[in-house]
Specification:
- The protein is an alpha+beta fold.
- It is built from four helices and seven strands; from the N terminus they run βααββββββαα.
- A seven-stranded antiparallel sheet has the order 1-7-6-5-4-3-2, with helices on both faces.
- Strand 4 and strand 5 form a beta hairpin.
- It is elongated.
- About 30% of the residues are buried.
Length: about 180
């Protein structure tokens, strides 16, 4: 399978501010210890399941199962970078649609930045690229890439808009819990 990085299927970035100083935020720790029940609370009813594992060669991986629009998406996010203020996760995601199964590439970036007043701005950026498998799937079902991209942009953007403030609140709760435990 080949990822077509020169084409963007969808892209969105939403932000939310939290009343936690940046130095107390640890996105990587939050992401790789996130209980499944907390993940489910971060975009009901879309979020279905999650877990943490590793690749065969030991890289950290997060598996997310969620509905995005009419597609059941199983994401196999491998950490390319994972720090307290920035995580870049890369997935070849399986998408089960009403007309069959395909695959897309999803880059998920979780970003924390210091802002005024000892606060933090959280950005949830998601970029999807088609794969050659996806392009064949679209053609086989009588769609153009442009039509598929419009549908994916609408569904993905709506999902990201709804989950971003809930992820930010969860990150803030984790930071407060860690501070209280000290």
């Amino acid at each position: 399978m080949k990822v077509l990085t020169d084409k963007i299927l969808s892209q969105s970035a939403y932000t939310a501010e939290i009343d936690i100083p940046l130095e107390k935020v640890d996105i990587a720790e939050w992401l790789f210890t996130l209980p499944e029940a907390e993940y489910l609370r971060c975009c009901p009813p879309d979020h279905i399941g999650s877990g943490v594992t590793t690749t065969d060669d030991g890289r950290r991986m997060v598996i997310n199962v969620e509905m995005i629009g009419t597609g059941l998406v199983i994401q196999h996010y491998i950490a390319e970078e994972a720090t307290p203020s920035y995580c870049r996760m890369n997935s070849i995601s399986d998408v089960f649609t009403p007309v069959g199964r395909t695959q897309v590439n999803v880059i998920w970036e979780l970003i924390a930045e210091a802002i005024e007043g000892e606060r933090t701005r959280y950005t949830n950026r998601v970029t999807s690229h088609p794969t050659d498998v996806f392009m064949d799937f679209v053609v086989a079902h009588g769609q153009t890439f442009e039509q598929a991209a419009v549908a994916r942009q609408e569904a993905g953007g709506d999902h990201n808009r709804r989950e971003t403030p809930l992820f930010a609140a969860s990150i803030a709760r984790r930071a407060l819990a860690k501070a209280d435990a000290k």
